[in-house]
Amino acid sequence: MIPPIASNFVAGKSAPQALDHVASLNDDGVNGILNLLGEHYEERPPADEDADAYVSLIEDIAGSGLDCCVSVKPSQIGLDVGDEVFVDNLERIVAAGDDHGVFVWVDMEDYTTTDVTLDAYERLVTEHDGGVGVCTQANLKRTPEDLERLAPLPGKVRLVKGAYAEPKSVSYKQKERVNEAYEDCLELMFERFEGGVAVGSHDPAMIDHARALHDEYGTEYEVQMLMGVREDAQRDLAAEGVPTWQYIPYGEKWFSYFYRRVRERKENALFAMRAVLS
Ligand code: FAD
């Protein structure tokens, strides 16, 4: 069992536990994005196993009637083993999503993986005429150019600030500069993306900016936040009528994810400590 503190950030070790969490979220009008924890496999068998787990998760989601999709990390389904292993596995997952009407997001990892991830996304989203989304990172200097390339495609794009420590040559390092880049990318997306914009951020300033751009351009948008972070804001946005999605990690590899969440913000550490003391 996952200790109560960690269960604020991770929905359980198994798919049924994660789906139970989505059911309670859906009651509050918030949709679920399920992510089976796992990354950087160096051998093919665990990558294939996790791809199989996503296919069966997609079947479970379709049978559940829940408002829920999935999000997959490239290195979890074989990118570190070889580009073709990643693409084969992603193809299987996207085909299952297409068969069952379940949307598939592709997370973005460090800058060395951007080209192969976007190439695979472009091919699959075109072949399936939608049903797939990809994440882009505002801290990377290349992202505005990538967004221009992605704009005419039928899928969806999630914009995040970027979670990886990238070299200075390819990325913005200062928080203010990343925020500025995020706002510029949002502007480009609201102007150009007819299929809508996914705002992957907890930052009230970025969400306000998206709201203002929606008023200006009329482009639809959704907000995506992590489980355990600003959950009141997630419910408030949903109540306001903004499509709101919670990214929900689950699985046996919960500890390292939980540890990362606690380390990255003082608020999360205090939150965890309060939960222990109460
Ligand atoms: P920050 O700059 O971290 O915070 C800005 C403000 O937001 C803070 O000042 C505060 O007001 C508020 N805030 C943030 N966290 C908290 C908190 N814990 N409690 C209260 N207020 C808070 N990164 C990738 O590189 N690849 C991915 O595929 C990817 N997918 C993601 C999917 C989702 C749905 C989300 C939400 C994030 C994803 N990320 C991904 C992570 C992302 O890149 C950022 O590292 C992360 O979201 C932190 O940036 P932020 O925009 O939330 O704002």
UniProtKB/TrEMBL annotation:
Start and end residues of each Proline dehydrogenase domain: 19-271
Pfam families per the UniProt record, alphabetical: Pro_dh (PF01619)
Enzymatic reactions: L-proline + a quinone = (S)-1-pyrroline-5-carboxylate + a quinol + H(+)
Pathway noted in the entry: Amino-acid degradation; L-proline degradation into L-glutamate; L-glutamate from L-proline: step 1/2
Keyword Cell division: no
Domain of life: Archaea
UniProt KW keywords: FAD, Flavoprotein, Nucleotide-binding, Oxidoreductase, Proline metabolism
GO biological process, one term: L-proline catabolic process to L-glutamate
GO terms of molecular function: nucleotide binding; proline dehydrogenase activity
EC number: 1.5.5.2
Cofactor requirement: FAD
Database matches in PANTHER family: PROLINE DEHYDROGENASE 1, MITOCHONDRIAL, PROLINE OXIDASE
Protein's name in the database: proline dehydrogenase
